[in-house]
Design brief:
By secondary structure, this protein is of the alpha+beta class. It folds into two domains: 1-68; 69-225, Trna Endonuclease, Chain: A, domain 1 (3-Layer(aba) Sandwich). 44% of the residues lie in helices and 19% in strands. It contains three helices and eight strands, in the order H-H-E-E-E-E-H-E-E-E-E. It has helices at 6-68, 72-92, 153-170; strands at residues 97-101, 126-130, 135-143, 148-150, 173-182, 192-197, 206-208, 216-219. The strands form two sheets. It has a six-stranded mixed beta sheet with strand order 1-2-3-5-6-8. A two-stranded antiparallel sheet has the order 4-7. A hairpin with a 4-residue loop joins strand 2 (126-130) and strand 3 (135-143). The longest helix has 63 residues, at 6-68. The protein is elongated and about 125 Å long. It starts with 5 loop residues before the first helix and ends in a 13-residue tail after the last strand.
Length: 232
């Protein structure tokens, strides 16, 4: 066999290198295809998980609504504000003892019109008593981030009924106030609070907190606001 010239040997090496290169390209292409398939599978799995999460959240919300009458997120917003009000009362009106903190539970919730609850659920969230003066102060807590509150006349009638019943049954002076919170990072840390006597809503069903500076009892960073506009 004749000895190959350097040019022929170089051509053979180039062909061998090209073949190896093409095999490597095919291998990489297969890896890309497999990874693309994996990405598709992962995306499908993410979509399925998101749908499962949505369904679980919907089931949870429906079950929570059936027990407490509203979504968990809304319930927690109100509950966090109630905790803030309880802390505030403890700090500045320690002579009043918290006697009742409403639980707002329902029974037979499957048909909304058939919900059964204790009649006290229609009364204010927090009921305080000054044992020395026998004075009862009750607070209905409302947090609205936009600083505006709608108030149904039915609620006003319920709270006036509560005032008269407590006065009649217990022989004490009972007052109902709407403790309204607004703004802040969360309902647990409001920037403002207003203590509005229930009689304010005798002929009103809406209030913009900016219109009632005389009822402001708390503003973050201003401790002197607390007692100026309150008549407990």
């Amino acid at each position: 066999m004749a000895k190959k010239t350097p040019a022929e040997q170089a051509a053979i090496e180039i062909k061998r290198s090209l073949k190896e290169l093409m095999e490597e390209v095919k291998r990489l292409q297969l890896q890309i295809i497999r990874r693309e398939n994996n990405i598709v599978d992962l995306n499908n799995a993410i979509v399925n998980l998101q749908e499962e999460k949505r369904q679980l959240q919907e089931d949870f919300d429906n079950n929570f609504i059936s027990i407490f009458g509203l979504k968990y997120k809304d319930y927690m917003k109100g509950y966090e504000f109630e905790k803030h009000v309880v802390w505030w009362m403890h700090q500045y009106f320690g002579q009043y003892e918290l006697k009742i903190w409403q639980g707002d539970k329902f029974a037979h919730p499957y048909i909304e019109d058939d919900m059964i609850c204790a009649s006290w659920n229609m009364y204010p969230d927090l009921i305080y008593v000054d044992e020395q003066s026998k004075r009862v102060v009750t607070l209905e807590c409302k947090y609205r981030n936009d600083g505006k509150l709608k108030f149904e006349h039915r609620q006003y009638e319920n709270y006036k009924k509560f005032e008269s019943q407590i006065c009649s049954y217990m022989g004490v002076d009972a007052r109902v106030y709407i403790m309204a919170g607004s703004r802040g990072e969360t309902s647990h840390y409001p920037d403002f609070m207003y203590c509005i006597p229930i009689d304010y809503f005798a002929d009103k069903d809406y209030v913009d907190y900016r219109d009632i500076p005389e009822y402001k009892v708390y503003e973050r960073g201003f401790s002197n606001v607390i007692r100026d506009n309150i008549d407990f």
